From TrEMBL:
<dbReference type="InterPro" id="IPR000834">
    <property type="entry name" value="Peptidase_M14"/>
</dbReference>
<keyword id="KW-0479">Metal-binding</keyword>
<keyword id="KW-0378">Hydrolase</keyword>
<dbReference type="InterPro" id="IPR036990">
    <property type="entry name" value="M14A-like_propep"/>
</dbReference>
<dbReference type="Pfam" id="PF00246">
    <property type="entry name" value="Peptidase_M14"/>
</dbReference>
<feature type="domain" description="Peptidase M14">
    <location>
        <begin position="135"/>
        <end position="424"/>
    </location>
</feature>
<keyword id="KW-0732">Signal</keyword>
<keyword id="KW-0862">Zinc</keyword>
<keyword id="KW-0645">Protease</keyword>
<dbReference type="InterPro" id="IPR003146">
    <property type="entry name" value="M14A_act_pep"/>
</dbReference>
<dbReference type="GO" id="GO:0008270">
    <property type="term" value="F:zinc ion binding"/>
</dbReference>
<feature type="signal peptide">
    <location>
        <begin position="1"/>
        <end position="22"/>
    </location>
</feature>
<keyword id="KW-0482">Metalloprotease</keyword>
<feature type="active site" description="Proton donor/acceptor">
    <location>
        <position position="390"/>
    </location>
</feature>
<dbReference type="GO" id="GO:0006508">
    <property type="term" value="P:proteolysis"/>
</dbReference>
<protein>
    <recommendedName>
        <fullName>Peptidase M14 domain-containing protein</fullName>
    </recommendedName>
</protein>
<dbReference type="GO" id="GO:0004181">
    <property type="term" value="F:metallocarboxypeptidase activity"/>
</dbReference>
Length: 429
């Protein structure tokens, strides 16, 4: 498509719906939250007694847990520690004989250095869009890229608006297909950006879209499989992390608390909703909401997937961090009857990684029980192969993975899709 026409198409899209503009109507505070002096500590737990002491400390000082401790063996817990309690926590841990290391000395510095400088309003006139995979992008860039692909490759890409977020941003799913084959094919679903602060997730999802659509060498991946990819399931939260609070996790809906907003979308899906690993406190990062699918984002996504459930054979949700392939069930340490099938496929996919090492196993056993997750729900409606992938890293940067890591993570991950596509192609619709 000529560049001028591309510019006109993108201009018309954003004259109708600018995904950044909703912030003004819903009172997003444009003054960014500062994390100056905040630190991330990695605490090593060697016994149940130490685990209980740490839990008491966490509750007493209201410390935010970045990475939960496992329940059955030596493990590490990663904590976000505010400046005011750092000295006292050091004394408490030392007295208890609990070892720790400071992984991030100043969180704001890590935030400031984490993303390459990027002109969010720029348009690469040669490419016809603003996307690259050397920096993290705002929602307008991502949505502009999706519109560009749908306009440029109409025989390969369908851009589907499945609903709107709480702040009235569109919820987009990209269908990628081979138009030369009219037969309904088995499909793979991929989503990213459920948790707003996990920026590597939408980055990988958009990288996958680019590889499937714009790289001819990957055409075989479309031969027998359709793809549904939703790069940003939580657009309100994602945009909020760029303008106000880099570590925001939840949606941006109003709750019963006047000071706390949002629901954890990955505790809001309607299978075992409200169980272990969830909270009734609207100020909690794992707040489950008032009911299953209370959030327009989770409701629209689930309705769309249910409408395609007969063809979607594999559900893949991208998160960070920890480098693990997690298999249902996640609501508790319970194993589905076909767990061995799921484990074998996940191990085969992970074997394709060469740069990063991933653990593979039951979600609740490898991490911690968490009810209301999207992967459990997908499994519950009959999608046999359902996985959560926790992407890089293992704690050096946590949620603040520098932009310089985007391409290494994406390039390492993409070959695993050959394994998933080969399996899905053998399944009947």
């Amino acid at each position: 498509m000529p560049t001028l026409l591309v510019l006109l198409v993108l201009s018309s899209v954003f004259n109708v719906i600018d995904p950044s503009s909703a912030a003004e109507d819903f009172g997003i505070d444009e003054k960014a939250v500062s994390y100056s002096g905040f630190q991330v500590w990695s605490v090593t737990i060697r016994s149940n007694a130490e685990r209980e002491i740490l839990r008491t400390i966490i509750d007493q000082y209201d410390v935010e847990v970045w990475k939960e401790p496992k329940t059955d063996k030596v493990t590490t817990t990663e904590l976000l520690v505010v400046p005011q309690v750092q000295k006292e926590l050091k004394v408490k841990l030392t007295q208890a004989g609990i070892s720790y290391v400071i992984k991030i000395n100043d969180l704001q510095a890590a935030i400031d250095n984490g993303n390459a400088k990027h002109n969010m309003s720029s348009l690469n006139t040669k490419a016809g869009h603003s996307m690259d995979w050397t920096s993290y992008h705002r929602l307008s860039d991502i949505y502009g890229y999706l519109s560009y692909l749908a306009s440029t490759y109409p025989n390969r890409v369908e851009l589907i608006n499945i609903g709107t977020s709480y702040e009235k941003r569109p919820l987009y799913v990209v269908r990628i297909f081979n138009c030369s084959s009219p037969v309904v094919k088995p499909a793979i679903w991929i989503d990213g950006g459920i948790h707003a602060r996990e920026w590597i997730s939408p980055a990988l999802a958009t990288y996958i879209i680019r590889q499937l659509v714009e790289v001819p060498a990957n055409a075989a991946l479309l031969r027998n499989v359709d793809w549904y990819i939703m790069p940003v399931m939580n657009p309100d939260g994602y945009e909020y992390t760029h303008v106000s609070n880099r570590l925001w996790r939840k949606t941006r809906s109003v709750t019963s608390s006047t000071s706390c907003r949002g629901v954890d979308p990955n505790r809001n899906f309607g299978y075992k909703w409200g169980g272990l690993g969830t909270s009734t406190n609207p100020c909690s990062d794992v707040y489950k909401g008032t009911k299953a699918f209370s959030e327009p984002e989770t409701l629209a996504t689930s309705n769309f997937i249910k409408g395609k459930a007969s063809s979607i054979k594999l559900y893949l949700t991208l998160h960070s961090y920890g480098q693990a392939a997690l298999i249902p069930w996640g609501y508790d340490v319970v194993y589905p009857s076909d767990y061995s099938d799921m484990l074998a496929l996940a191990k085969s996919a992970v074997s394709k990684f060469t740069k990063y090492r991933y653990s593979v196993g039951n979600a609740a056993a490898l991490y911690y029980p968490a009810a209301g997750g999207s992967d459990d729900w997908a499994k519950s409606i009959g999608i046999k192969y359902s996985y959560t992938f926790e992407l890089s890293d293992t704690g050096a940067y946590g949620f603040l993975l520098p932009a310089s890591n985007i391409l290494p993570v994406c390039q390492d991950f993409f070959p695993a899709l050959d394994v998933f596509a080969a399996k899905v192609a053998t399944l009947k619709v």
